[in-house]
Amino acid sequence: xxxxxxxxxxxxxxxxxxKLERGRSRETVGDPQTEHSREYYIVHMKDLEFQxxxxxxxxxxxxxxxxxxSYQYSSLEEDRKDIVLYLKQTLTQKEDEVFxxxxxxxxxxxxxxxEKVSLEKQLAQLRQDFQEKKDQLxxxxxxxxxxxxxxxxxxxxxxxxxxxxxxxxEQLKKQSKEHQLVIQNLEKKxxxxxxxxxxxxxxxMAAIAAELKLVSERNIPGTTMRAIHENMSVTAQLSRxxxxxxxxxxxNQLLKEREEQLKWxxxxxxxxxxxxxxxxxxxQKVLHQLSLRCDEQSVELKEYVKSQTLYAQLEEDxxxxxxxxxxxxxxxxxxxxxxxxxxxxxDKLRKDLQREKDIREQLEAVQQEAVMxxxxxxxxxxxxxxxxxxxxxxxxxxxxxxLVVLDNATLLGKGPVLTxxxxxxxxxxEYKTGLQSCPxxxxxxxxxxxxxPERCNRLMxxxxxxETVQSAKR
Length: 474
Hints:
Blueprint: H1 2-13, H2 19-29, H3 35-215, H4 220-379, H5 388-411, H6 418-425, E1 432-433, E2 436-437, H7 438-444, H8 452-473
Helix pairs in contact: 1-2, 3-4, 3-8, 4-5, 4-8, 5-8
């Protein structure tokens, strides 16, 4: 009793002490078994205060992130507005282009119809003129064909004679050139052969003389026999060369006789050639007249071909205009499809933006609820006059609020499932202090029942705060 009164006097004497210090003084005056756990609670409370500061810092970071998110959302909203404005401008531009193209298409159709009518009239007139000219030219060609058939026979005979004459002249010239070349080659060979034989004889004689000088005393009969044999071989070579020269001279004589015969044939053919020439001149005059007539007809035929080409070109232009018209229609259809796609994209972007707005509002509501629950949890401090039932009820209410926040986050797909949360939280009730768990201490030591809920609440509160912050982050 004396110690309790003394403790009361101390509390009265020092009114500046906090509730925590008064609680510590009571625990010091109380049971001495709690002296060891008191230091543990002090360290644990400091740890919890450090965690509280850490969570406050995380809360500030979340606020900064929320501001960044709002800034990003505003930038996305501006980008969306710019995109919508750009799409509207593009749409108006495409509509103007479609209108211009439709006007151009209408003008082209009208011009095409007018040009088609005029071209059809020209084509009908040209066909009529060409048919008349064709009939006239056909009748004239029939007359000219009869005249040309008589000229073809004469032309063929003249060409045959001229070909024979030209062939004979060419053959004669060719043979004379060949004979001259052969004679020149033979003469050159003969001269070269003579020079070579002379040189060989001189060299051989010089060699024989030198050899005779060397072996004149020993082998005079042998050297004489060799000289005789060599002289015989040289004479044999000279006889062969003379025979070849005789053969070449005979061939040259035959070629000269052939040349004389060809000259005689040419003189015999000259009168016939003159006669054929006179006839050819008369035929050339007729051919000149016919060629002039053919030139006139060819000019008319070229005009006809030119008109046909012009008609084909007009048909090609008509086909090209038709293709351009089809391509313009396809471009118009593609522009309409692109416009529909742009409208669909714009509607989709509007829906996505509205969905993001709804999700953002829901997330902001969940965030506000989490902040309120966290603030309430951080401000919650058990009082001396609170009973165990009041402490447990406040703790249960706090846990309900936190669970409601977690349920809302889970519904949005931004938080953990409730069953997983209970699996994580359930083992915390078996937190041990010293040798016994919290429920066992509460049952066995009834004197500490006022401290047990406070301790359990302080042990579970940081865990609940941590889970709530993590769910808000998700």
